[in-house]
């Protein structure tokens, strides 16, 4: 049984920063890309950022490019999302997602992610 557990969400003022973490347990994410998605109220789940297994390749949604940074520590089975210069438009539930083992390539396609966390709320006040 694979589990992804997000942490680090909370309430922050506009212009502030948060760092989200996603810890994988139950089975090592061997050679698998990891990503962050988010879902705002009354909106669909949207791609935020992805990182390949090696960490060499990253992609970002245009809306967060230059403000968010995704990284990973494979020794700790953990993925991070550093979020800076937050705006109220970033308010959403943030979900960590993982591809199945043996899928190292980064992709923005939600359907290719097999494992999902329960989500962590990020609220940015104006």
Structure overview:
The protein is mainly beta. It has no helices and eleven strands. Strands 2, 4, 5, 6, 9, 10 and 11 form a seven-stranded mixed β-sheet that branches. The chain has a four-stranded antiparallel β-sheet with strand order 1-3-8-7, with no helix packed on it. The radius of gyration is 13 Å and the shape is globular. The N and C termini lie far apart (40 Å). 35% of the residues are buried.
Defining key terms:
mainly beta; 126 residues; seven-stranded mixed beta sheet; single chain
In short:
By secondary structure, the chain is an all-beta fold. The protein contains no helices and eleven strands.
Write down the overall geometry: globular
Percentage of β-strand residues: over 45%
- The helix tally amounts to 0
Query: How would you classify the helix and strand content by structural class?
Result: mainly beta
- Give the topology string: H per helix, E per strand: EEEEEEEEEEE
What gap, in angstroms, lies between the N and C termini?
Answer: 40 Å
Task: Provide the fold topology.
Blueprint: E1 3-7, E2 10-13, E3 18-25, E4 34-39, E5 46-51, E6 58-60, E7 68-73, E8 78-83, E9 92-98, E10 115-116, E11 120-125
Parallel strand pairs: 2-11
Antiparallel strand pairs: 1-3, 3-8, 4-5, 4-9, 5-6, 7-8, 9-10, 9-11
């Amino acid at each position: 049984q694979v589990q992804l557990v997000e942490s680090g969400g909370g309430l922050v003022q506009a212009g502030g920063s948060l760092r989200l973490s996603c810890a994988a347990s139950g089975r090592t994410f061997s050679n698998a890309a990891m990503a962050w998605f988010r879902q705002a109220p009354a909106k669909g789940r949207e791609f935020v950022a992805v990182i390949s297994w090696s960490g060499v390749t990253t992609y970002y949604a245009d809306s967060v490019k230059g403000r968010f940074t995704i990284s990973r520590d494979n020794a700790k089975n953990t993925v991070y999302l550093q979020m800076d210069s937050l705006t109220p438009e970033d308010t959403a539930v943030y979900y960590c997602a993982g591809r199945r083992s043996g899928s190292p390539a980064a992709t923005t396609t939600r359907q290719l992610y097999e494992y999902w966390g329960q989500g962590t709320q990020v609220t940015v006040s104006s």
